[in-house]
Protein backbone atom coordinates (compact mmCIF):
# COMPACT_ATOMS: atom_id res chain seq x y z
CA UNK A 1 0.00 0.00 0.00
CA UNK A 2 1.38 3.43 -0.85
CA UNK A 3 2.05 5.99 1.82
CA UNK A 4 -0.28 8.94 1.23
CA UNK A 5 1.35 12.36 1.12
CA UNK A 6 0.61 14.74 4.01
CA UNK A 7 -2.80 16.37 3.66
CA UNK A 8 -2.66 19.92 2.33
CA UNK A 9 -5.74 20.70 4.43
CA UNK A 10 -5.26 18.57 7.51
CA UNK A 11 -7.79 20.49 9.61
CA UNK A 12 -10.57 20.44 7.05
CA UNK A 13 -13.49 18.02 7.30
CA UNK A 14 -17.02 18.04 5.86
CA UNK A 15 -18.60 21.49 5.99
CA UNK A 16 -21.01 22.27 8.80
CA UNK A 17 -23.72 22.90 6.17
CA UNK A 18 -23.49 19.32 4.88
CA UNK A 19 -23.31 17.97 8.45
CA UNK A 20 -26.43 19.82 9.56
CA UNK A 21 -28.31 18.94 6.38
CA UNK A 22 -27.49 15.28 6.91
CA UNK A 23 -28.66 15.47 10.53
CA UNK A 24 -31.83 17.21 9.36
CA UNK A 25 -32.52 14.45 6.83
CA UNK A 26 -31.84 11.66 9.32
CA UNK A 27 -34.27 13.25 11.78
CA UNK A 28 -36.90 14.46 9.30
CA UNK A 29 -36.27 17.96 10.61
CA UNK A 30 -37.21 21.18 8.84
CA UNK A 31 -33.97 22.22 7.22
CA UNK A 32 -33.27 25.89 7.95
CA UNK A 33 -29.53 25.16 8.04
CA UNK A 34 -28.16 25.30 4.50
CA UNK A 35 -28.63 28.52 2.52
CA UNK A 36 -30.85 27.49 -0.36
CA UNK A 37 -34.48 28.19 -1.30
CA UNK A 38 -37.02 25.37 -1.06
CA UNK A 39 -39.23 26.97 -3.74
CA UNK A 40 -39.07 26.95 -7.55
CA UNK A 41 -37.22 29.59 -9.53
CA UNK A 42 -39.24 31.73 -11.98
CA UNK A 43 -40.65 29.58 -14.81
CA UNK A 44 -39.69 32.30 -17.32
CA UNK A 45 -36.03 31.65 -16.53
CA UNK A 46 -36.51 27.87 -16.71
CA UNK A 47 -38.18 28.22 -20.11
CA UNK A 48 -35.24 30.24 -21.47
CA UNK A 49 -32.83 27.48 -20.40
CA UNK A 50 -35.05 24.87 -22.04
CA UNK A 51 -35.22 26.93 -25.26
CA UNK A 52 -31.47 27.46 -25.54
CA UNK A 53 -30.72 23.79 -24.89
CA UNK A 54 -33.22 22.72 -27.55
CA UNK A 55 -31.96 25.33 -30.02
CA UNK A 56 -28.55 23.63 -29.81
CA UNK A 57 -26.48 25.97 -27.62
CA UNK A 58 -24.76 23.10 -25.85
CA UNK A 59 -21.05 23.51 -26.54
CA UNK A 60 -18.22 25.44 -24.85
CA UNK A 61 -18.70 29.12 -24.11
CA UNK A 62 -15.84 31.62 -24.53
CA UNK A 63 -13.38 31.67 -21.60
CA UNK A 64 -14.64 34.89 -20.01
CA UNK A 65 -18.33 34.12 -20.59
CA UNK A 66 -21.03 34.86 -23.20
CA UNK A 67 -20.87 38.51 -24.19
CA UNK A 68 -24.64 39.04 -23.85
CA UNK A 69 -24.51 37.99 -20.20
CA UNK A 70 -21.42 40.06 -19.46
CA UNK A 71 -23.14 43.09 -20.96
CA UNK A 72 -26.17 42.56 -18.75
CA UNK A 73 -23.93 42.22 -15.69
CA UNK A 74 -22.11 45.45 -16.58
CA UNK A 75 -25.46 47.21 -17.05
CA UNK A 76 -26.73 45.95 -13.69
CA UNK A 77 -23.60 47.14 -11.88
CA UNK A 78 -23.71 50.53 -13.57
CA UNK A 79 -27.41 51.04 -12.78
CA UNK A 80 -27.04 49.91 -9.18
CA UNK A 81 -23.71 51.50 -8.28
CA UNK A 82 -22.78 53.97 -11.04
CA UNK A 83 -19.58 51.98 -11.61
CA UNK A 84 -18.33 51.04 -15.06
CA UNK A 85 -16.78 47.69 -15.94
CA UNK A 86 -15.86 46.81 -19.52
CA UNK A 87 -18.06 43.75 -20.20
CA UNK A 88 -15.49 41.86 -22.24
CA UNK A 89 -12.26 42.77 -20.47
CA UNK A 90 -13.38 43.15 -16.88
CA UNK A 91 -16.15 40.65 -16.20
CA UNK A 92 -15.65 36.87 -16.00
CA UNK A 93 -18.52 34.43 -15.64
CA UNK A 94 -17.65 31.72 -13.10
CA UNK A 95 -19.01 28.43 -11.80
CA UNK A 96 -20.61 30.14 -8.80
CA UNK A 97 -19.26 32.52 -6.20
CA UNK A 98 -17.11 29.77 -4.71
CA UNK A 99 -15.09 29.25 -7.88
CA UNK A 100 -14.67 32.99 -8.28
CA UNK A 101 -13.30 33.23 -4.73
CA UNK A 102 -11.03 30.23 -5.23
CA UNK A 103 -9.69 31.57 -8.50
CA UNK A 104 -9.10 35.07 -7.13
CA UNK A 105 -7.12 33.68 -4.20
CA UNK A 106 -5.22 31.22 -6.42
CA UNK A 107 -4.31 34.02 -8.83
CA UNK A 108 -2.80 36.33 -6.23
CA UNK A 109 -1.84 34.56 -3.01
CA UNK A 110 1.64 33.09 -2.73
CA UNK A 111 3.50 31.42 0.15
CA UNK A 112 3.59 33.59 3.30
CA UNK A 113 1.31 36.29 1.92
CA UNK A 114 -1.06 37.49 4.61
CA UNK A 115 -4.81 37.73 4.09
CA UNK A 116 -7.19 39.48 6.48
CA UNK A 117 -10.65 38.02 6.99
CA UNK A 118 -13.55 39.02 9.20
CA UNK A 119 -15.21 36.37 11.34
CA UNK A 120 -17.87 35.02 11.51
CA UNK A 121 -16.72 34.10 7.98
CA UNK A 122 -18.05 32.02 5.14
CA UNK A 123 -16.21 28.73 5.18
CA UNK A 124 -14.23 28.70 1.92
CA UNK A 125 -11.94 31.71 2.47
CA UNK A 126 -9.50 30.29 4.97
CA UNK A 127 -8.80 26.83 3.45
CA UNK A 128 -8.32 28.35 0.02
CA UNK A 129 -5.78 30.86 1.33
CA UNK A 130 -3.97 28.02 3.14
CA UNK A 131 -3.94 25.85 0.04
CA UNK A 132 -1.73 28.43 -1.65
CA UNK A 133 0.55 28.86 1.35
CA UNK A 134 -1.02 32.10 2.56
CA UNK A 135 -1.49 33.04 6.20
CA UNK A 136 -4.89 34.13 7.50
CA UNK A 137 -5.18 37.01 9.97
CA UNK A 138 -8.58 37.29 11.57
CA UNK A 139 -10.67 40.02 13.07
CA UNK A 140 -13.46 38.55 15.17
CA UNK A 141 -16.75 40.43 15.03
CA UNK A 142 -18.85 39.68 18.10
CA UNK A 143 -22.55 39.39 18.97
CA UNK A 144 -24.89 41.14 19.15
CA UNK A 145 -23.81 43.88 16.70
CA UNK A 146 -20.88 42.29 14.83
CA UNK A 147 -19.13 45.62 14.43
CA UNK A 148 -15.63 46.11 13.07
CA UNK A 149 -13.01 47.86 15.17
CA UNK A 150 -10.92 49.37 12.38
CA UNK A 151 -8.08 50.23 14.75
CA UNK A 152 -7.74 46.54 15.53
CA UNK A 153 -7.86 45.74 11.81
CA UNK A 154 -5.10 48.28 11.23
CA UNK A 155 -3.06 46.36 13.79
CA UNK A 156 -3.33 43.25 11.62
CA UNK A 157 -1.76 44.95 8.60
CA UNK A 158 1.89 44.24 7.89
CA UNK A 159 4.13 44.54 4.87
CA UNK A 160 3.11 40.98 4.03
CA UNK A 161 -0.61 41.83 3.82
CA UNK A 162 -1.66 41.01 0.28
CA UNK A 163 -5.44 40.85 0.46
CA UNK A 164 -8.47 41.74 2.56
CA UNK A 165 -11.54 39.57 2.10
CA UNK A 166 -14.88 41.23 2.77
CA UNK A 167 -18.31 39.68 2.83
CA UNK A 168 -21.02 42.29 2.51
CA UNK A 169 -23.88 41.65 3.36
CA UNK A 170 -22.39 39.20 5.81
CA UNK A 171 -23.28 35.55 6.04
CA UNK A 172 -24.08 34.54 8.80
CA UNK A 173 -24.59 37.75 10.83
CA UNK A 174 -26.80 39.59 8.33
CA UNK A 175 -24.79 42.80 8.92
CA UNK A 176 -24.01 45.25 6.12
CA UNK A 177 -21.05 47.62 5.90
CA UNK A 178 -21.76 51.28 6.68
CA UNK A 179 -20.40 54.37 4.97
CA UNK A 180 -18.10 54.77 7.97
CA UNK A 181 -16.74 51.22 7.58
CA UNK A 182 -15.91 51.98 3.96
CA UNK A 183 -14.19 55.28 4.85
CA UNK A 184 -12.06 53.46 7.42
CA UNK A 185 -11.18 50.78 4.90
CA UNK A 186 -10.16 53.40 2.35
CA UNK A 187 -7.84 54.97 4.94
CA UNK A 188 -6.26 51.61 5.75
CA UNK A 189 -5.46 50.57 2.18
CA UNK A 190 -4.42 54.03 0.94
CA UNK A 191 -0.77 54.03 -0.21
CA UNK A 192 -0.58 50.21 -0.06
CA UNK A 193 -0.87 47.52 -2.75
CA UNK A 194 -3.41 45.52 -0.76
CA UNK A 195 -6.05 43.85 -2.91
CA UNK A 196 -9.67 43.46 -1.84
CA UNK A 197 -11.75 40.41 -2.55
CA UNK A 198 -15.32 41.52 -1.98
CA UNK A 199 -17.81 38.68 -1.68
CA UNK A 200 -21.16 40.34 -2.40
CA UNK A 201 -23.28 37.32 -3.21
CA UNK A 202 -26.19 38.76 -1.14
CA UNK A 203 -25.89 42.23 -2.73
CA UNK A 204 -29.57 42.34 -3.72
CA UNK A 205 -30.93 41.21 -0.36
CA UNK A 206 -30.80 44.29 1.88
CA UNK A 207 -33.69 45.34 4.11
CA UNK A 208 -35.56 48.33 5.57
CA UNK A 209 -34.61 50.68 2.73
CA UNK A 210 -30.91 50.43 3.55
CA UNK A 211 -28.42 50.52 0.74
CA UNK A 212 -25.85 47.93 -0.21
CA UNK A 213 -22.53 49.77 -0.43
CA UNK A 214 -20.68 47.77 -3.05
CA UNK A 215 -16.92 48.08 -3.18
CA UNK A 216 -17.21 49.28 -6.77
CA UNK A 217 -18.88 52.55 -5.73
CA UNK A 218 -15.57 53.85 -4.42
CA UNK A 219 -12.90 54.44 -7.10
CA UNK A 220 -10.09 54.16 -4.50
CA UNK A 221 -11.33 50.65 -3.70
CA UNK A 222 -12.60 49.57 -7.13
CA UNK A 223 -9.13 49.84 -8.65
CA UNK A 224 -7.82 47.17 -6.28
CA UNK A 225 -10.92 44.97 -5.91
CA UNK A 226 -12.28 41.72 -7.23
CA UNK A 227 -16.05 41.81 -6.80
CA UNK A 228 -17.75 38.41 -6.57
CA UNK A 229 -21.46 37.72 -7.10
CA UNK A 230 -23.70 34.65 -7.49
CA UNK A 231 -26.72 34.02 -9.70
CA UNK A 232 -27.57 31.15 -7.36
CA UNK A 233 -28.48 33.71 -4.70
CA UNK A 234 -29.94 36.24 -7.12
CA UNK A 235 -32.42 33.99 -8.92
CA UNK A 236 -33.04 31.10 -6.46
CA UNK A 237 -30.90 28.66 -8.44
CA UNK A 238 -28.07 27.71 -6.08
CA UNK A 239 -27.73 24.32 -7.79
CA UNK A 240 -26.77 25.91 -11.11
CA UNK A 241 -23.47 27.13 -9.66
CA UNK A 242 -23.01 30.23 -11.73
CA UNK A 243 -21.73 33.68 -10.76
CA UNK A 244 -19.13 36.19 -11.80
CA UNK A 245 -16.10 38.23 -10.89
CA UNK A 246 -15.84 41.90 -11.90
CA UNK A 247 -12.41 43.52 -11.63
CA UNK A 248 -10.24 46.06 -13.46
CA UNK A 249 -8.52 44.66 -16.55
CA UNK A 250 -5.09 44.12 -14.99
CA UNK A 251 -6.64 42.05 -12.19
CA UNK A 252 -9.02 40.26 -14.56
CA UNK A 253 -6.10 39.26 -16.81
CA UNK A 254 -4.43 37.48 -13.88
CA UNK A 255 -7.75 36.03 -12.70
CA UNK A 256 -8.38 34.53 -16.14
CA UNK A 257 -4.95 32.91 -16.31
CA UNK A 258 -6.12 30.69 -13.45
CA UNK A 259 -9.75 30.51 -14.55
CA UNK A 260 -8.82 28.99 -17.91
CA UNK A 261 -7.18 25.99 -16.25
CA UNK A 262 -9.61 25.82 -13.40
CA UNK A 263 -12.89 25.52 -15.34
CA UNK A 264 -12.04 27.24 -18.65
CA UNK A 265 -15.67 28.27 -19.16
CA UNK A 266 -19.15 27.93 -17.75
CA UNK A 267 -22.43 26.30 -18.86
CA UNK A 268 -23.48 27.89 -22.19
CA UNK A 269 -27.31 27.56 -22.27
CA UNK A 270 -27.64 28.85 -18.71
CA UNK A 271 -25.51 31.90 -19.53
CA UNK A 272 -27.73 32.66 -22.52
CA UNK A 273 -30.87 32.20 -20.45
CA UNK A 274 -29.60 34.49 -17.68
CA UNK A 275 -28.71 37.17 -20.24
CA UNK A 276 -32.27 37.10 -21.58
CA UNK A 277 -33.82 37.08 -18.11
CA UNK A 278 -31.66 39.96 -16.85
CA UNK A 279 -33.04 42.31 -19.49
CA UNK A 280 -35.89 42.91 -17.06
CA UNK A 281 -34.43 44.69 -14.01
CA UNK A 282 -37.51 43.85 -11.94
CA UNK A 283 -36.23 40.31 -11.70
CA UNK A 284 -33.56 41.41 -9.28
CA UNK A 285 -34.85 44.74 -8.02
CA UNK A 286 -37.76 43.09 -6.16
CA UNK A 287 -35.54 40.64 -4.30
CA UNK A 288 -35.10 42.71 -1.14
CA UNK A 289 -38.84 43.17 -0.63
CA UNK A 290 -39.44 39.48 -1.47
CA UNK A 291 -37.05 38.34 1.25
CA UNK A 292 -37.97 41.11 3.69
CA UNK A 293 -41.49 39.62 3.87
CA UNK A 294 -39.97 36.24 4.74
CA UNK A 295 -37.65 37.77 7.32
CA UNK A 296 -40.55 39.64 8.94
CA UNK A 297 -42.76 36.54 8.90
CA UNK A 298 -40.08 34.57 10.75
CA UNK A 299 -39.31 37.39 13.20
CA UNK A 300 -42.98 38.01 14.01
CA UNK A 301 -43.52 34.29 14.46
CA UNK A 302 -40.68 34.08 16.97
CA UNK A 303 -41.34 37.41 18.73
CA UNK A 304 -43.15 35.81 21.67
CA UNK A 305 -40.43 33.18 22.32
CA UNK A 306 -37.42 33.47 24.60
CA UNK A 307 -35.07 33.61 21.63
CA UNK A 308 -33.38 36.96 21.07
CA UNK A 309 -33.65 37.99 17.43
CA UNK A 310 -30.46 39.78 16.43
CA UNK A 311 -30.58 42.50 13.75
CA UNK A 312 -30.89 41.24 10.21
CA UNK A 313 -30.01 43.97 7.70
CA UNK A 314 -29.42 41.71 4.71
CA UNK A 315 -28.85 38.13 3.42
CA UNK A 316 -31.46 35.43 4.00
CA UNK A 317 -30.22 34.44 7.44
CA UNK A 318 -31.64 35.28 10.84
CA UNK A 319 -29.34 35.02 13.88
CA UNK A 320 -30.94 33.81 17.14
CA UNK A 321 -29.35 34.21 20.54
CA UNK A 322 -30.65 31.48 22.78
CA UNK A 323 -29.10 32.03 26.25
CA UNK A 324 -32.55 32.27 27.84
CA UNK A 325 -33.49 28.90 26.33
CA UNK A 326 -30.48 26.68 27.00
CA UNK A 327 -27.00 26.75 28.49
CA UNK A 328 -25.62 24.23 26.01
CA UNK A 329 -22.88 25.33 23.61
CA UNK A 330 -24.16 26.30 20.18
CA UNK A 331 -23.13 23.08 18.44
CA UNK A 332 -24.88 20.89 21.02
CA UNK A 333 -27.88 23.19 21.05
CA UNK A 334 -28.19 23.13 17.25
CA UNK A 335 -27.95 19.32 17.32
CA UNK A 336 -30.60 19.09 20.05
CA UNK A 337 -32.85 21.46 18.12
CA UNK A 338 -32.59 19.22 15.07
CA UNK A 339 -33.06 15.89 16.82
CA UNK A 340 -35.66 16.86 19.44
CA UNK A 341 -37.47 19.87 18.02
CA UNK A 342 -37.03 19.02 14.33
CA UNK A 343 -35.59 22.34 13.22
CA UNK A 344 -32.08 22.35 11.73
CA UNK A 345 -29.89 25.46 12.07
CA UNK A 346 -26.18 26.26 11.92
CA UNK A 347 -24.18 27.09 15.08
CA UNK A 348 -22.31 30.40 14.74
CA UNK A 349 -19.13 28.95 16.28
CA UNK A 350 -18.55 27.07 13.05
CA UNK A 351 -17.88 30.40 11.33
CA UNK A 352 -14.93 31.11 13.63
CA UNK A 353 -11.53 29.40 13.55
CA UNK A 354 -11.45 29.51 17.35
CA UNK A 355 -15.03 28.22 17.61
CA UNK A 356 -16.19 31.34 19.45
CA UNK A 357 -19.39 30.33 21.24
CA UNK A 358 -21.79 33.18 22.02
CA UNK A 359 -24.93 31.03 22.06
CA UNK A 360 -26.05 32.10 18.62
CA UNK A 361 -27.48 29.98 15.80
CA UNK A 362 -28.34 30.84 12.19
CA UNK A 363 -31.68 30.13 10.54
CA UNK A 364 -32.14 30.37 6.77
CA UNK A 365 -35.47 31.99 5.83
CA UNK A 366 -35.23 31.45 2.06
CA UNK A 367 -38.11 29.04 2.45
CA UNK A 368 -41.79 28.72 1.57
CA UNK A 369 -44.18 30.29 4.07
CA UNK A 370 -45.48 26.85 5.04
CA UNK A 371 -41.92 25.68 5.84
CA UNK A 372 -41.30 28.74 8.00
CA UNK A 373 -44.69 28.28 9.65
CA UNK A 374 -43.84 24.71 10.69
CA UNK A 375 -40.45 25.81 12.02
CA UNK A 376 -42.06 28.65 14.01
CA UNK A 377 -44.61 26.20 15.45
CA UNK A 378 -41.82 23.89 16.67
CA UNK A 379 -39.64 26.71 18.00
CA UNK A 380 -42.49 28.36 19.91
CA UNK A 381 -43.12 25.11 21.81
CA UNK A 382 -39.64 25.17 23.37
C1 LIG B 1 -21.03 34.45 1.66
C2 LIG B 1 -21.07 33.47 0.55
N1 LIG B 1 -20.16 33.52 -0.41
C3 LIG B 1 -20.15 32.67 -1.44
C4 LIG B 1 -21.09 31.67 -1.54
C5 LIG B 1 -21.02 30.70 -2.68
O1 LIG B 1 -21.81 31.06 -3.75
P1 LIG B 1 -22.11 29.98 -4.88
O2 LIG B 1 -23.15 29.05 -4.36
O3 LIG B 1 -22.53 30.79 -6.06
O4 LIG B 1 -20.81 29.26 -5.13
C6 LIG B 1 -22.08 31.55 -0.55
C7 LIG B 1 -23.07 30.46 -0.59
O5 LIG B 1 -23.75 30.17 0.34
C8 LIG B 1 -22.08 32.48 0.53
O6 LIG B 1 -22.99 32.42 1.49
Automatic annotation (TrEMBL):
<dbReference type="Pfam" id="PF00155">
    <property type="entry name" value="Aminotran_1_2"/>
</dbReference>
<feature type="domain" description="Aminotransferase class I/classII large">
    <location>
        <begin position="29"/>
        <end position="379"/>
    </location>
</feature>
<dbReference type="InterPro" id="IPR015422">
    <property type="entry name" value="PyrdxlP-dep_Trfase_small"/>
</dbReference>
<keyword id="KW-0663">Pyridoxal phosphate</keyword>
<dbReference type="InterPro" id="IPR004839">
    <property type="entry name" value="Aminotransferase_I/II_large"/>
</dbReference>
<dbReference type="GO" id="GO:0008483">
    <property type="term" value="F:transaminase activity"/>
</dbReference>
<keyword id="KW-0032">Aminotransferase</keyword>
<protein>
    <submittedName>
        <fullName>Aminotransferase class I/II-fold pyridoxal phosphate-dependent enzyme</fullName>
    </submittedName>
</protein>
<dbReference type="InterPro" id="IPR051326">
    <property type="entry name" value="Kynurenine-oxoglutarate_AT"/>
</dbReference>
<dbReference type="InterPro" id="IPR015421">
    <property type="entry name" value="PyrdxlP-dep_Trfase_major"/>
</dbReference>
<dbReference type="InterPro" id="IPR015424">
    <property type="entry name" value="PyrdxlP-dep_Trfase"/>
</dbReference>
<keyword id="KW-0808">Transferase</keyword>
Amino acid sequence: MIQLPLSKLSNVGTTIFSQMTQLANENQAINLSQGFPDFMPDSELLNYVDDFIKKGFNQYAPLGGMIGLKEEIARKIENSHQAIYHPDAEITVTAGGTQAIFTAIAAFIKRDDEVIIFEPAYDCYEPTVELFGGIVKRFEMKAPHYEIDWNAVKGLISEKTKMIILNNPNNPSGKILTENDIRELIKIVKDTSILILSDEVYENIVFDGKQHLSICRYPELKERSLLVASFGKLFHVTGWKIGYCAAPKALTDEFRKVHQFNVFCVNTPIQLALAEYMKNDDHYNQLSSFFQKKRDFLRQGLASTSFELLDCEGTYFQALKYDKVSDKNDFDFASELTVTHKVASVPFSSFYKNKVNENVIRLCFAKKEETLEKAIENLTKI
